[in-house]
Specification:
Strand content of chain B: 15-25%
Protein name (chain A): ABC transporter permease subunit
Domain ABC transmembrane type-1 (chain A): 100-285
Subcellular location (chain A): Cell membrane
Oligomer: heterodimer
Number of strands of chain B: 12
Family (chain A): Belongs to the binding-protein-dependent transport system permease family.
CATH superfamily of chain A: MetI-like
Strand content of chain A: under 5%
Helix content of chain B: 25-40%
Region (Disordered) (chain A): 1-21
Radius of gyration of chain B: 21 Å
Largest sheet of chain A: none
Distance between the termini of chain A: 49 Å
Number of strands of chain A: 0
Radius of gyration of chain A: 25 Å
Number of domains of chain A: 1
CATH topology of chain A: MetI-like fold
């Protein structure tokens, strides 16, 4: 019976000692990706500029000055002035705060509710999951920007309503992604193990599912942050977002478009900031996808 | 453990258990349900190791998962320690689960890649509401018990070898102080050289903690080594059940004979090599009568007309075959 020899006592199994292997700092390693590094640098510079607006200019972004309208860029007005004589540097920097914060708010709201719906649908499945996902399908079937326009038309123009409208477009996008990832993780044996240990569904979702779907959510968020920013500025541009006289990149571009032959600086500077930030965010997204989602990277 | 008589206490009892997986239902076709477990009666005695063998797809894993209530049976009942598990739900069931644990086949995917070993092993204790300090103390004790070291606690599962990962899985299962453990092919994913170490570890832990095992495997050699009794499954049913030595020495069911003849070294012990013809029939559409008759060299008309019941063909030896005597 004792044909399996006992002399290989289990305690003698050589423990692979990984502590000897050099362990690189994951943050440093991630920056080997040039796109991630470039995107982070671009975004960091823009965020710093916008955050440090009061230090960079003493001008009030909304203060009109009839004596100094349409001033080209100069030492006094580094980005020139607009049709009301407002300092464009101040408007671009303070307006950038609005654009960046509202796009961040959009992805946070969209990610939160979308993730919640995706987790519930993916983990519990069944009838509630079916209903949630069919609603998601319905919302996804609309062209996003059209839906946003329709929602702002119902809610009325304004920054908060614009944020709500674009968030609603993001919710089904997140829900679809998270539902798929959750279904995948839920089928793994460590979830079964947690069930046999007596964990309830919400505990499993919080401790096992969320940490394992988080990389996909992060990658998705960097991708959609850029799109959300474009949509926020688009709403501002057509006058459904931030209301005058407040500055926001889309609104500034709108102010500038009718004078584009007369005062190019009104379009070029906010446009440059907007494009740079979107490019930066997308570069980060590309890099993170490679880092966090090996399936896509290969 | 080996010399158990019928007076020993039954820890787990399964009555008429059926687990079916629903088939596809659509306008164009209705696929019949997959009868993974199709009427199993089983008693597991406290302190014993019951081995469960069979080809892949025979329902042995589903049976183990159903005992853990990871699969919902369509009928039948599971009794643990005179409590009916099949009726339990919610909090009651979650409390009950601490008494029964599972060791999984794939040691990597059964450990959450984003958790450190300390948290993995302590998970059951955390769920039970054990304080942080007490948890740490118990986890440190457990990791040594399974042959690893306390410094391993701060690492992630991917930093370990297959055998070490399985030790972590065993430590996690032990943390709730279970009395019954379902080991679902615990060594089939491991190198042969590591297998015996894990098996010996499981035997030592059984002695120390007074565990009862349901040991599921397709490797008959491993099962013979660890089991007190062995059950053979075919197409969702148990077709033979006996003490390990008796089953290996005197298999009564042709299917068991064929399985044993395939074990390396079996021919030298005077067994003729039996090569089974054909594939396992689909569990969606099992044959009438004896499920094995389509591949059996002794099959007669009676076998397709009448399903042989599992009966005691000699003391402590049950077989489901018309010709088992």
């Amino acid at each position: 019976m004792n044909d399996l020899s006992r002399d290989t006592a289990y305690t003698t199994e050589p423990a692979e000692d990984h502590s000897l292997a050099p362990r690189r700092n994951p943050v440093l390693r991630a920056f080997r990706h040039r796109s991630l590094l470039a995107g982070t640098v671009i975004c960091a510079i823009l965020i710093l500029l916008v955050a440090a607006a009061p230090l960079l200019t003493s001008a009030d972004p909304n203060k009109q000055s009839p004596m100094t309208i349409f001033q080209p860029p100069s030492v006094d007005y580094p980005m020139g002035t607009d049709a009301f004589g407002r300092d464009l540097l101040a408007r671009v920097l303070y307006g950038g705060r609005v654009s960046m914060l509202s796009s961040a708010a959009v992805v946070m709201i969209g990610a939160f509710f979308g993730t919640l719906m995706g987790l519930v649908a993916g983990y519990f499945g069944g009838r509630p999951g079916f209903v949630i996902m069919r609603v998601v399908d319905l919302l996804l079937a609309f062209p996003g920007i059209l839906l946003a326009l329709a929602i702002t038309a119902i809610l009325g123009p304004g920054l908060v309503n614009g944020i709500i409208a674009i968030s609603i477009i993001l919710i089904p996008v997140y829900a679809r992604l998270v539902e798929g990832a959750t279904t995948e993780v839920r089928a793994l044996p460590f979830v079964d193990a947690a069930v046999t240990l007596g964990a309830g569904p919400w505990r499993i979702i919080a401790t096992h599912i969320v940490p394992n779907v988080m990389p996909s959510i992060i990658v998705m968020t960097t991708t959609w942050l850029g799109i959300a920013l474009l949509w926020i500025t688009a709403l501002g541009f057509i006058g459904l977002g931030v209301q005058p006289p407040n500055a926001e990149w889309g609104a500034i571009l709108n102010d500038g478009q009718q004078f584009i032959t007369l005062a190019w600086w009104m379009t070029v500077f906010p446009g440059l900031f907007l494009s740079l930030f979107v490019v930066g965010v997308n570069l980060i997204g590309d890099g993170l996808r490679d880092e966090l989602d090996p399936k896509v990277a290969n | 453990m080996r010399d158990m008589d019928d007076t020993s206490t039954t820890l787990v009892q399964v009555n008429g258990l059926k687990v079916h997986f629903a088939g596809e239902r659509s306008l164009f076709r209705d696929t019949p349900p997959l009868r993974a477990v199709d009427g199993v009666d089983l008693k597991i005695q406290a302190g014993e190791t019951l081995g469960l063998v069979g080809e892949s797809g025979c329902g042995k894993s589903t049976l183990g998962r159903a005992l853990m209530r990871l699969e919902e049976p369509v009928s039948g009942s599971i009794w643990f320690d005179d409590k009916n598990l099949s009726d339990m739900n919610g909090t009651e069931l979650r409390k009950m689960r601490r008494d029964m644990q599972m060791i999984f086949q794939d040691p990597l995917s059964s450990l959450d890649p984003r958790m450190k070993v300390r948290r993995i092993i302590g998970e059951g204790l955390a769920i039970a509401g054990v304080s942080r300090a007490e948890r740490d103390a118990q986890v440190e004790e457990l990791i040594v018990k399974v042959g690893l070291r306390t410094e391993h606690l701060n690492r992630y599962p991917h930093e370990f070898s297959g055998g070490q990962r399985q030790r972590i899985g065993i430590a996690r299962a032990l943390a709730t102080r279970p009395r019954f453990i379902v080991a679902d092919e615990p060594v089939s994913a491991l190198d042969v050289s590591i297998q015996s170490q894990i098996i010996n570890l499981m035997k030592d832990l059984q002695r120390e903690f007074g565990l009862t095992y349901l040991f599921i495997a397709h490797d008959l050699g491993v099962v013979e080594y660890i089991s007190d009794r062995v059950g053979v499954m075919y197409l969702g049913r148990i077709v033979e059940l006996a003490d390990a030595d008796d089953l290996y020495a005197d298999p009564r069911m042709p299917y068991t004979q064929a399985l044993l003849s395939a074990v390396p070294g079996g021919a030298e012990e005077g067994r003729e090599r039996i090569i089974l013809q054909g594939d396992v029939p689909s569990p969606r559409n099992p044959p009438s009568g004896c499920a094995f008759r389509t591949r059996c060299w002794r099959a007669e008309e009676r076998c397709s007309a009448e399903r042989p019941q599992l009966r005691e063909v000699k003391p402590r030896h049950w077989a489901a075959c018309h010709f088992a005597d």
